[in-house]
């Protein structure tokens, strides 16, 4: 994409797709818009994208929301409420969008946001790590990895397994070591708050 010259005609065609009521056209427009963001597009184009990308995060089509999320992430320094937007996207009804937001956690989460990740301990989104590999609860595992990073503490890893789709087994990292640590830590705080 970087080798395609950014002519006014190309920008115009992308704009036309982005303005289309047809979801397929809009998705193509978002794909191209994401592709040219790294190629120094005209500032007018970027300025026009900023409010629209935020609006597309509310689109009924999850793929549109996911592609708009790419724009938000790429242009995050232009959004004063980037952190709030990303926390909101962690709650998207579509697992792919939630997972995408979670994978960008280093750009918006802090240690105080660990409670926002606790809901993922039972997330049921399954994915293959590569073609033909075993299934894993991807969001569950990535959320635990994010928590370890935020805590600056690795937790003992033990793999759990259960039957999944079509008799295939699904694997994930056990959250119990973290949850035990979290519970002990919060019990101490509650004790000191009462005293």
Tell me what the structure shows.
The chain has 195 residues and is of the alpha+beta class. The protein folds into two domains: 1-108, Leucine-rich Repeat Variant (Alpha Horseshoe), CATH 1.25.10; 109-195, no CATH class. It contains nine helices and four strands. It has helices at residues 8-18, 23-36, 43-56, 62-74, 82-89, 95-103, 114-117, 138-151, 176-194, and strands at 126-128, 135-137, 159-163, 169-173. Strands 1-2-4-3 form a four-stranded mixed beta sheet. A hairpin with a 5-residue loop joins strand 3 (159-163) and strand 4. It is elongated, with a radius of gyration of 20 Å. The termini are far apart. The model is unreliable at 191-195 (pLDDT under 50).
Write the layout of secondary structure elements.
Layout: H1 8-18, H2 23-36, H3 43-56, H4 62-74, H5 82-89, H6 95-103, H7 114-117, E1 126-128, E2 135-137, H8 138-151, E3 159-163, E4 169-173, H9 176-194
Helix pairs in contact: 1-2, 2-4, 3-4, 4-6, 6-8
CATH secondary-structure class of the largest domain: Mainly Alpha
CATH topology label of the largest domain: Leucine-rich Repeat Variant
For CATH, the homologous superfamily of the largest domain is named as Leucine-rich Repeat Variant
Share of residues in strands: 5-15%
Number of helices: 9
Task: Round the mean pLDDT to the nearest integer and report it.
Answer: 91
CATH architecture of the largest domain: Alpha Horseshoe
Which structural class best describes the helix and strand composition? Answer: alpha+beta
Largest sheet: 4 strands, mixed
- What percentage of residues falls in helices of 4 or more residues? 40-55%
- Report the C-alpha radius of gyration, rounded: 20 Å
Give the CA-based shape: elongated
Strand segment count: 4
């Amino acid at each position: 994409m970087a080798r395609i010259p950014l002519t006014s005609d190309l920008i115009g065609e992308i704009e036309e797709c982005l303005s289309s009521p047809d979801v397929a056209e809009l998705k193509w427009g978002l794909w191209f818009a994401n592709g040219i963001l790294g190629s120094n597009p005209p500032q007018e184009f970027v300025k026009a994208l900023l409010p629209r990308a935020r609006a597309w995060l509310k689109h009924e089509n999850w793929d549109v929301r996911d592609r708009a999320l790419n724009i938000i992430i790429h242009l995050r320094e232009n959004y004063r409420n980037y952190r709030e937007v990303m926390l909101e996207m962690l709650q998207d009804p579509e697992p792919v969008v939630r997972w995408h937001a979670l994978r960008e956690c280093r750009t918006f989460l802090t240690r105080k946001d660990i409670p926002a990740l606790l809901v993922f301990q039972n997330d049921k989104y399954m994915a293959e790590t590569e073609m033909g590999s075993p299934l894993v609860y991807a969001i569950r595992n990535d959320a635990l990895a994010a928590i370890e990073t935020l805590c600056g503490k690795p937790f003992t890893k033990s793999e759990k397994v259960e039957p999944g789709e079509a008799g295939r087994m699904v694997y994930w990292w056990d959250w119990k070591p973290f949850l035990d640590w979290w519970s002990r830590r919060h019990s101490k705080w509650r004790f000191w708050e009462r005293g």
